[in-house]
Amino acid sequence: MGKRVLVIEDEPNIIEAINFILSRDGWGVDTHSNGHDAVDVVLAKAPNLVILDVMLPGRSGYDILKDLRAHPQTAQLPVLMLTARGQNKDRDMAQRLGASRFMTKPFSNAEVLEALRSLVPQ
Amino acid sequence: MAMRPKSSPLFLERRSYRQRRLMDAARLMPILGATLWAVPLLWGDGGQGDAGARMSNSNAMVYIFGVWVVLVGLTMWVSLRLKDDSAEPPSTSPPRQGPPPGAAQ
Amino acid sequence: MIATLNLLIAVCLGYVALLFLVAFLAERAALRGRGAWLRSPVVYTLSLSIYCTAWTFYGAVGYAARAGLEYLTIYLGPTLVMIGWWWLLRKLVRIGRTQRLTSVADLVSSRYGKSPALAIFVTLIAAMGLMPYIALQLQSVTESFTTFARMDDSAMTLEDPRAIAFWVAAGLALFTILFGTRNLDANERHHGVVIAIAVEAVVKLFALLAVGVFVVWWVAGGVGPMLEKIDASPIRTWQMDGGRWAGLTILSAAAFLTLPRMFQVMVVENEDEGALRTASWAFPLYLMLMSLFVVPIAVVGLEMMPQGANPDMFVLSVPLSQGQDMLALLSFLGGFSSATSMVIVAAIALATMLSNHLVMPLWLRFTGGGAVISGDVRGVVIQARRISIISVMGFGYLYYRLSGGGTALASIGLVSFVGLAQVLPAMMGGIFWRGATRIGALVGLGIGFVLWLWCMLLPSLGEGSIIPAHVMAHGPFGMGWLRPYALFGIDGLDPLVHAILWTLLLNTAGFVLGSLVTFPTPLERLQGAQFVNVFQHSNNPQSWSGGIAQSEDLMVMAQRILGASEAQALFQDEAARQGLKGYLPEPTPDFLALLERRLSGSVGAATAHAMVGQIMGAATVSVEDLLAVADETAQMMEYSSQLETKSEELVRTARQLRAANEKLTKLSVQKDAFLSQISHELRTPMTSIRAFSEILRDLGLNPDEQKKYAGIIHDEAIRLTRLLDDLLDLSVLENGQVHLNVRSCVLAEVLDHAQAAAGAQDGTLRIRRRRISEEVMLTTDGDRLSQVFINLVANARKYCDASAPVLTISVRSDGAMLTVDFVDNGSGIPAEAQDMVFEKFSRVSDQKAGGAGLGLAICREIMARLGGSVGYLPGQGGGAFRVSIPIQGEVTMSQPASTQS
Q1: In 3D, which of C726, C721, C664, C719 has the Cα closest to residue C857?
Q2: Quick check: C91 contacting B, CB < 8 Å?
Q3: Do C92 and C236 sit in the same domain of this protein?
Q4: Do C261 and C374 share a structural domain?
Q5: Does residue C645 lie in a domain region?
C-alpha cells in the first residue's frame, strides 16, 4: 500500500470505473473533476501518478500538463493522458508536452493497469 | 456605386436637343400665363371714363377662360412630351440614396 | 318634398359614413399592397382640390355678386404655380421626399439648420392663420343649414346659429380625429384620407357643375341668353382695381405654396414625383371648371333672389327657390364636402406641426433623458395630435364667435392667406438662395407676422373688438403713421392691398438684410446646399460617423418610435443590404441618415436629429468642426463630402471583409473540430460502457454492485443512442430527405405540448403566454415545430441566469407569417456569440449542460424545412429567439439551410 494515483476527469461514470479498477488493484485513488485548480491539487496531494483527461471544464489537460512539467516538484511526475479525440495530432501534442503515456478512450482496464505498473515501479 | 458621376460634365452631353427645348417651354409657361392675364390691367379700373369704352364682363370672361383653356392645353402637351423621355434633366444625377422602395408605408 | 333639418343631418351622417367606408377600404387595399391605384396621378390631382374649400363653393359666388370677376384671382395664382411646376413644385416635392419633410414648419426648420425656434414660429403662424379659415368653414356650413331651415315650412324655430356652429365644430373635430389619427402608426401619410378627399373633390365639382348647368340651360336658356343676362346685370362691366387684380393673384399663388394643408397633400402625401406632371395641367383644369359657372350663378341669383338675400348662399338658394330640392341637396353636399375635406387636412397638417414641433420637444425635455429611456413615444404623439385637432377647432369656433359670423366669406379667407403668405420669403429664399440664414428667416417672419396681426387679423375681428376705433382712425398713442390701414401715412390704399404690400415687402426686406449681415452655422450651410442643389446631390453630407454608435441602442430607440415590427424590418433590411446576417447593421453614415429621416417622419426633423445625436455622442460636434475647416466654396464642400463618402466606404468594405474572413476562419476551425467533436461525444459514453462491462466480466462482484454497474452501462448506452439519433436527424434534415407530416394544428396546443415536454412545470422557469393570440390555425408539421419549441424552452430553463427566470412567449401575425418570440429575462447571449449559436456543437457557456450542442442546429434545419426561420433577436433585454412560421405551410424541398457543412 502507499502508491497513490490522482484521477483528473470530469465524467462521473468514468471516474467511478477507474476508481473501482485501481482500488481493486491496491492503489490509493484521489479524484478531481475540473481544470481550474488541478495543478494546485496535484501539488497538495503529491501522488505517485496522475491520470489526466484532455477535455476538462475550465482548463484543458494540455495546459495543466505544461504547468506540471514546468514546476520542479512535478517535472518528473508520471502522467497518463486520456483523450476521447483519438487523432494523431492529439497524440503528438501530448508527447511534445511530456506526457509519460497517452491513451485513447475507450481503453481496456487491463491496459490501464499495465501502464500504471510500468510507470510506477512497485 | 463608389464613383459618382460629376455634377458638371466636362463637355456637353449628347442629350436630346428636343428635350432641352421642351424644358425651356415648361419654364416659359407661367411667364406666358402671367403676361396674358396681366392684359386685363390695361382695361382700366372702370372708375372713370365713359361707359362705352369699358370692357364688358361677358367679354372679359371669354378672354380669361380662353387663356385658361390654352394654358391647360399647352401645359398638358409639354408635360406629356417631357414624360416620354428621361425623368431627369440632363445635368442631374439620380438621388443616390432616397428612401428605399417600400420604405414608405 | 321639403328638405327638413333632420333630413339634412341624416344625409350628412350618411355621407360621412360613406367616406369612412371609402377610407377604410383604401387603407386596407394599401396594407395588402394593392394600393397602386391609390397613388395614381388622378387621385393626386383630385387631392389638391382641398384648395377649393367652402370659400370656393359658396363664397366665390358671393364674391362675384359683390365684386365681379375679382374672385378669379384666387384661382389664377395657383394655376400659374401649377403650370410653372418645372421651376418650383418639382423642386419642392423632391426636397420634401429626400428630406422626409412632414410640414411647412418642418421645411423651414430643416432648411435653416433644423432650428426648433423657426419650427415653432411657423407653427404658430400657421395655427393663427388657420383660425379664420376654420371659422369660415363653420360659418358656411352653418349658413347652409339656416338657408335650408328658412325654406322649411314646418317652421321649426330656428336655433341660434351659434349653437349650430358649435355642433358643426364638434362634429368636424370628431370626424377629423377619427379620420386623421385612426392609425396607431404615427405615420405622416394617410392613404384613407387622401382617397376620401379625392371622392369629395369629385362630389363638389359635380355639385357645382350641376347647379351651373341648371342655371345656364334651365333658368337662362342657353349660353347666348346667359351672356346677355350678364351684360344686363349689376356686375356687367369690368370694374377692377389693378392693384387688387395683381396683388390677389400673387397672394393666392403664395398661399397655395404655404398653406399647411396644401403642403400636406402636395408634398407630404406625394409618393410619386411623376404625378406632378399630370397635376400640372389637370389641376388648372379642375380650377377652371370650378370657377366657370360662378358668374352665371351670381347673375341669376342677383336677378331672382329678393333684395338682401345672402349672395354667399346663392348656390343653395337659387335651386331651392326653383323648387329643385334634390339639386339643392346635392349642392348642399358639395358645400359640406368642401368644408369637411379642408378641415380634415388642415387640422391633420397643423396637428402634425403642433405635435412635432411643440409637444414632442417639450415632452422629451420634461421626461429627461430622451427616447432611449422613456417609454413608447407613439402613444404620446397620437394623443398630442388629437388634442391639437380639438384646440384647432376650438380656436376656429372662437374666431367665428368673435367676428360675429356676419362677415363675407371671401374676406375671412383672405385674412388667412395673407398670414400664411408670410412664410413665403423664407421658403423661396431657402430653396433658391444658399445665402439665406436662420436669423434672416426669423427676422423676416417676425416682421411679417407682427404687421399681419396689426394690419389684418386684429382689424378683421371687427371695429372696436380688440383694436379700439380711435386707434384705427388715429393710430396708437396718436401716432398717425402706425394706423393699421395706413402705415407710414400712405393713405387711400385698399386695406387688403395695403396689408399684402407692407407685410410681404418688409418681410422680404428683413429676411434679405438679416441673411446678408449674419453668418450661417455649418449645419445651416449644409442643409442650404442640400435644398438649393437638391437635384445635384441628393445624398446627405451631414453624415454621422459610424462605429461609435451602438446599433443595438439605435434599435431600442427606433422600436419605441416606429414600433417594434417596423423598426426590426428596417434594421434587418439594412443588415441584409450590407451583407450581414441578423438584425444589427453597421451604423454607416448612410444608414444613420436613413434612420434619421424615418424617425423624422414620426417626430419631426429637429427632434429626430437630436435623438440620433444623443446616441451618437459627440458626433455632431465633430462633423461641424470638420466642416468649419473644409470651408467656403461649394466645390470644396462637395469634394470633401465625396472623399468622406469614399473613405467611409473603404472602411466599411474592409470591415465587412474582416467580418467575413473571421466567420470563415471560425467555420473552418469548427469543421475541423466537427470530427474530433463527434469522436469525443461518442467515445465518452463508450469508455464507461467498456470499462464497466470488463469489470462485470472479469471481477467477482456482489449483486448490489452488479446491479449498479449494469445500470450505468444502460444509461450510457441510452445517451449514446440519443446522440446518434440527433446526428442522424441533423444529417437527414441537412440532406433534405426528411418526411414531413403536414396537417392542421393549433399553435396553442403545440406550445402546450412543448412546455410540458421541456419539463418546464417544475417551477424553475415561469412561462408567460397570451392564450388569445395563440389561437391560430397552422398548416405545418406540428411534431417538428414542437421539437423546435421544446428546444427553445429547455434552453431558457437551462441557461437563463436570472434569479427568478421568466420566459415570455409572444405571438404576432402579419398575414402570411406568424412570428413567435421567446424572450427570457436573463443576460442573453453576448453579441460575438450570437452568430455561432446555431452552429453544430457550439455551446456558449462552459457549464456542462448535458446536450451535445446540436439542439439549435437541428432547430434551424427544421425551420428551414417548414419554410420559416429561427434567429436570435438582439436588443430585447434578455436571451431572445424569434421563430417565423408560414401560416399556410409551404414546405421547402430545396437546399437545406446550411449547405456549407
Answers
A1: C726
A2: no
A3: yes
A4: yes
A5: no
Q: Is the dihedral of CA C167, C169, C170, C176 positive or negative?
A: positive
DSSP state of C815: S
Q: How far is CA A6 from the centre of its chain?
A: 7
**Global ipTM:** 0.90
Position C848 confidence tier, pLDDT thresholds 50, 70, 90: very low
C783 occurs within a structural domain: yes
Domain containing residue C490:
423-538
Chain C, 640 to 699: residues with Cβ < 8 Å from chain B are 642, 646, 649
Least CB–CB distance from C238: residue in B60, B72, B79: B60
Helix (H) or strand (E) holding C483: strand C482-483
Q: What is the pLDDT of residues C186-228, one digit of tens each?
A: 445 677 788 888 988 999 999 999 999 998 888 888 888 888 8
Q: Which chain B residues are within 8 Å of C82, Cβ to Cβ?
A: 75
Domains in chain C, number? 5
Task: Select from C586, C574, C525, C597 the least CA-distant residue to C550.
Answer: C586
3-state per-residue secondary structure call for C4-48: CHHHHHHHHHHHHHHHHHHHHHHHHHHHCCCCHHHHCHHHHHHHH
Flag whether A63 is in a domain. yes
What's residue C375's pLDDT? 52
Contact C238 B47 (CB under 8 A): no
Q: In the numeric block, which cell numbers belong to residue A110?
A: 487491463
The maximal CA–CA distance of chain C, rounded, in angstroms, is 135
Q: Are residues C256 and C338 in the same domain?
A: yes
Residues 6 or more apart whose CB falls under 8 angstroms from that of C614 comprise: C370, C371, C372
Q: What is the pLDDT of residues B80-95, one digit of tens each?
A: 887 544 444 433 333 3
C295 reaches B (C-beta below 8 A): yes
Q: Would the CB atoms of B46 and C240 count as touching at under 8 Å?
A: yes
Q: What is this structure's pTM?
A: 0.59
Interface test mutation site (partner A, options C681, C688, C705, C712, max chain A beta carbons within 10 A): C688
Tell me, yes or no, whether C558 and C571 share the same domain. Answer: yes
Answer positive or negative: Cα dihedral of C248, C254, C257, C261: negative
C454 and C476, same domain (yes or no): yes
Residue C897 lies in a domain: no
Kindly state whether residue A77 falls inside one of the protein's structural domains. yes
CB contact under 8 A, A105 and C848: no
